[in-house]
Specification:
By secondary structure, the protein is mostly helical. It has one domain. It is built from 8 helices and no strands. Helix 3 crosses helix 4. The longest helix is centred in the middle third of the chain and has 25 residues.
Length: 153
C-alpha cells in the first residue's frame, strides 16, 4: 500500500483509539492487514531485489514519501480530532513497518530479518496464492481508497 494510505488509516485508528499506546499498536497491526490486499507493487519489489528497475522503485518510494508528507501535514492542519497525540501515534504505528523494511533493505540488520519475513508474509499472502493486480490498477484503486479515507478523518 501507499505510505499515504498507511498514514491515513493510522490517523483514523488514532482518532478512534482511547490512548496513544493503543493507537500505535492498532495502527501497526492495521499495516499488515492492509498489505494483504494486492496493490500492484509485487513485481516492482521483485525487480528491485534482482537489481532491475532500481531507479523506478526508488522513484516510486520517493514520490510516495513526498505525498505522505503532504497527507500528514493536511491531517495535522485539519484538526478534526480530539487527541493529536493519538492521531500522531496512529500515523507512526501505521508507517513504522515499512520504515523498518526500508532500514533492513539498506543495512541488512540481523535483528530485522524475521520482521522482514513477517512483513512480506502478509504483503505477499494473496499475491503468492493468486496474483497481483497491475501496477496502474493498484495505483488507481489506492488513490480512490486514499481520497475516501481522507473524508473519514
Amino acid at each position: 500500500m501507499f505510505l499515504a494510505t498507511h498514514a491515513t488509516v493510522g490517523a483514523i485508528v488514532g482518532r478512534a483509539a482511547p490512548d496513544p499506546i493503543s493507537a500505535f499498536f492498532l495502527a501497526f497491526a492495521s499495516h499488515f492487514l492492509l498489505d494483504i490486499i494486492p496493490h500492484g507493487d509485487a513485481d516492482l519489489y521483485k525487480d528491485y531485489k534482482r537489481g532491475n528497475k532500481v531507479r523506478l522503485a526508488l522513484s516510486y518510494t520517493m514520490i510516495d514519501a513526498i505525498v505522505t508528507a503532504y497527507v500528514v501535514v493536511a491531517i495535522a492542519q485539519a484538526r478534526l480530532f480530539d487527541s493529536g497525540l493519538n492521531v500522531a501515534a496512529g500515523v507512526v504505528g501505521g508507517l513504522l513497518p515499512d520504515l523498518l523494511v526500508g532500514i533492513f533493505e539498506v543495512t541488512k540488520t540481523r535483528w530485522l530479518v524475521k520482521f522482514h519475513a513477517v512483513h512480506f508474509f502478509f504483503h505477499n499472502m494473496f499475491v503468492n496464492k493468486y496474483r497481483d493486480v497491475s501496477f496502474m490498477t493498484g495505483v488507481a484503486y489506492q488513490l480512490v481508497i486514499l481520497i475516501f479515507l481522507q473524508t473519514r478523518i
